[in-house]
């Protein structure tokens, strides 16, 4: 057990990588997911078709394949580089894959939130001369976000756990370090596993509690 304590800095750095992957991917997923939502409810058929096709493909493709595509397809075959540093480049390729995958779920959550907004509000907005973009940005989306706080929290928790697959593109986050430590300390597998499990609980539990509180705070009274 003393040997495991000496690995404390390694474990902290591993979870810090997990936090970074989650934070950056969350921002990217919210932005892309909101854009996809706008496209899915757009009056233009071509935008609805493109967004619907993207969401369908992304939601039904394993995340491992998505990350393999960003790592091998985008990174290796297309030669897309974010940095000369391999570790930094792999980090952003992982972000790209996680964002592309998670944004599809964000889109569906927001679209369900839009369905909770009374149709009369959109009609009233059009009657006073607001455009589709203005109606969506000022009236529909704010209420949709408030309606789906809990589902978005669940998506964020799932994203945190999905970062463990970032090893596909060579990112050394928490799960990679756990495997390495199990190989080194084979006689202390239970302690290693329990320690990393507690680490993920510490990351995910406060997130769920926060979004639950936020949902109650922002609840829309119908």
Automatic annotation (TrEMBL):
The chain crosses the membrane at residues 12-36, 57-79, 91-110, 147-172, 192-214. It is a multi-pass membrane protein. InterPro entries: AA_ABC_transptr_permease_3TM (IPR010065), ArtM/GltK/GlnP/TcyL/YhdX-like (IPR043429), MetI-like (IPR000515), MetI-like_sf (IPR035906). The keyword Transport applies. Residues 15-211 form the ABC transmembrane type-1 domain. One of its GO terms (molecular function) is transmembrane transporter activity. It comes from the Bacteria. GO terms for biological process: amino acid transport. Pfam families: BPD_transp_1. Keywords: Amino-acid transport, Cell membrane, Membrane, Transmembrane, Transmembrane helix, Transport. It is found in: Cell membrane. The keyword NAD does not apply. SUPFAM superfamilies: MetI-like (SSF161098). Its main location: membrane. GO terms for cellular component: ATP-binding cassette (ABC) transporter complex. Belongs to the binding-protein-dependent transport system permease family. HisMQ subfamily. This is Glutamate transport system permease protein.
């Amino acid at each position: 057990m003393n040997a495991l304590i000496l690995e404390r800095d390694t474990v902290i750095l591993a979870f810090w990588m997990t936090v970074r992957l989650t934070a950056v991917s969350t921002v990217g997923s919210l932005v892309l997911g909101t854009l996809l939502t706008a496209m899915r409810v757009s009056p233009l058929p071509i935008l609805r078709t493109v967004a619907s096709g993207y969401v369908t493909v992304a939601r039904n493709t394993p995340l491992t394949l998505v990350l393999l595509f960003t790592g091998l397809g985008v990174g290796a075959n297309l030669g897309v580089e974010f940095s000369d540093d391999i570790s930094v480049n792999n980090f952003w390729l992982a972000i790209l894959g996680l964002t592309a995958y998670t944004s599809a779920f964000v889109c569906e959550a927001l679209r369900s939130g839009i369905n909770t907004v009374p149709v009369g509000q959109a009609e009233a907005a059009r009657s006073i001369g607001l455009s589709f973009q203005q109606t969506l940005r000022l009236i529909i989306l704010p209420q949709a976000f408030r309606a789906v706080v809990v589902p978005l929290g669940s998506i964020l928790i799932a994203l945190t756990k999905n970062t463990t697959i970032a090893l596909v593109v060579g990112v050394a986050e928490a799960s990679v370090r756990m495997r390495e430590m199990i190989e080194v300390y084979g006689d202390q597998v239970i302690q290693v596993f329990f320690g990393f499990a507690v680490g993920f609980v510490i990351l995910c539990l406060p997130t769920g509690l926060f979004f639950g509180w936020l949902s109650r705070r922002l609840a829309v009274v119908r």
